[in-house]
Amino acid sequence: MPNHHHHHRHHVTGNLPSPPKRSPKLLSIFLKFIVMSLILSLFLLFIGLAAIILLHLLLAGSFLHRRRRRLLSRSPAPRASTLSLPDIQNHLPPFAYSAAGESPSAADDCSICLEGFNEGEICRVIPVCDHVFHARCVDRWLTKVPNCPICRTRIRFGAGGASDSVDGDDEIKFLWAMGVGR
After folding, report:
1. What does the alpha-carbon distance between residue 15 and residue 5 come to, in Å, rounded to a whole number?
2. Exposed/middle/buried for 156, CB within 10 Å: 0-12, 13-18, 19+?
3. What is the pLDDT of residues 25-83, one digit of tens each?
4. Calpha distance 77→69 (Å, rounded)
5. Could you write out the DSSP letters of every residue in 20-73?
6. Would you list the domain boundaries of the chain?
7. Of 85, 92, 90, which is closest to residue 123 (Cα–Cα)?
8. 162 CB-contact burial (10 Å; exposed 0-12 / middle 13-18 / buried 19+)
9. In terms of CATH architecture, what is 85-177?
10. Domain RING-type: where (predicted)?
11. pLDDT tens, 131-168?
């Protein structure tokens, strides 16, 4: 009888279902899904960070632009007091350029047009700083910007010609260096 009982036990264990085997193909698809989800999450995270940084830069730039405009609206514009052509011609007398050294400056070329001075060419000298330019070049320049093209010294005409007064020059030079009025 014990033999029969043992046989019955063997028969019961033989009927139990074996644990389900996982398919390697299904596991591979599942791992690919997880890896792609992680990559997509990281990509979206970086896109979000880039968008936040870009938004910050745009807002900061807009703020600085508005601040600069506000500062400029409070300060006098450098072009507000340009010089008239008759004033320039009356207060800055022309002279004929001479390479022999009779010219007021040792410059060999005009800093406005970057062309060299030719013998007998009509030029003008700015008395405050002694810079020399072609008359046609400096006339055009000073009708737009009342400063020396080289050193940015402010040119003002008083009763006796171009004055040596440089009031407000620091502010003008600062605004010029910041790119204002270009």
Report:
1. 16
2. middle
3. 888 999 999 999 999 999 999 999 999 999 999 888 888 888 777 777 765 544 446 67
4. 11
5. PPPPHHHHHHHHHHHHHHHHHHHHHHHHHHHHHHHHHHHHHHHHHHHHHHHHHH
6. 85-177
7. 92
8. buried
9. 2-Layer Sandwich (3.30)
10. 110-152
11. 888 999 988 988 888 888 888 888 877 654 444 444 44
Per-residue DSSP letters for 144-180? H--B-TTT--B--EETTEE----TTHHHHHHHHHTTT
**Exposure pattern of 115-131 as b/e (b: 16+ CB <10 Å)?**
eebeeebebbbbbbbeb
- Residue pair 67/96 in contact (Cβ under 8 Å)? The answer is no
Q: Which two tokens stand for residue 61?
A: 């730039």
What is the rounded CA–CA span in Å between residue 111 and residue 109?
6
User: Could you give the CA distance from residue 144 to residue 140 in angstroms, rounded to a whole number?
Assistant: 7
From the centroid of its chain, how far is CA 141? 25
| Contacts (Cβ under 8 Å, ≥6 apart) of 95 | 103, 104, 122, 123, 124, 125
H or E element that contains 141: helix 135-144
**Alpha-carbon gap, residue 104 to 96, rounded angstroms:** 11
In the numeric block, which tokens belong to residue 71? 């500062």
DSSP secondary structure code for residue 114 in this structure: -
Q: Are 180 and 72 in contact (CB under 8 A)?
A: yes
